[in-house]
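Entry 14. Ran structure prediction on the chain below.
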Amino acid sequence: MSDLNVKQYETCNSPTWCPGCGNNPILIAVRKALVNLGIEPHEVAFTFDIGCNSNGANFLNGYICHALHGRSLPPAEAIRLANHNLKAIISFAGDGGGFGIGIGHFIHACRRNIDILYLTHDNQIYGLTTGQTSPTSSKGVKTKSTPFGNPEEPVNPPALALSSSATWVARGFAGEINHLTSLIEKGIKHPGFAHLDVFQPCVTFNKLNTFDWFRKRVYKLEETDYKPNDKKKAWSKAWELDEKLPLGVLYEEKKETYKDQLPQLANEALVEKKLGSVDLTKAMEEYK
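Output, structure tokens:
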């Protein structure tokens, strides 16, 4: 609507993240994207897990579900199956919860192709618990939990999404608000499961992957001749992890969503079904 503005997505609570935290520009980009798409607060649902990113549950006006650590995807999927009329469902997670305890939910959400946007705040550290190695921390990095260096290979979120059959995979950077806003808009509009992994520098506990570190390495795929319709090429881009880090849509395809493949949901959402419209008498007789 013409009178829609970002103020309508604000709450009475001011962000409490550390000054300079990458969560702040992500919050700004989410609000801007929703306003640009003309989506009002009562037309969107947000789900959060536990972590620094999930303090955003206090700073966004809309339907909110603050779930358990690593568990933001299950309620988002349930909301989408229950209510088809919501114009956007955005699920948030950090790299710790999203790719640690919640990694199983991520893989299955990808392959189901449920129509939601999954936005992961990827700062390569556990920020809320003050700086331990996370699933996306670089091998060899020294943290509170790995003082002699991280012995594990990091999870590669875009590559994992691609191998799990996600139909829209992208990477953004908190230091590029306008570009990130555009990616969020595209992810919301995509009919199916959209995963946007965002490089989100933690200015307090991650002194390696800083804003300056990323700015020296990131480049935009839109400024090249890259087309996001080839999964093999997308796979190659997902593994560019050294001196060059691609931003933008790595892959997209159109496929039937989960609900479209279920006759009981394809034309009518759960919230639209009338109670008592199904006769269970015959089914119950089988248990006598």
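Residues 6-285 form a domain with the Rossmann fold fold (CATH 3.40.50.970). Will compare against last week's run tomorrow.
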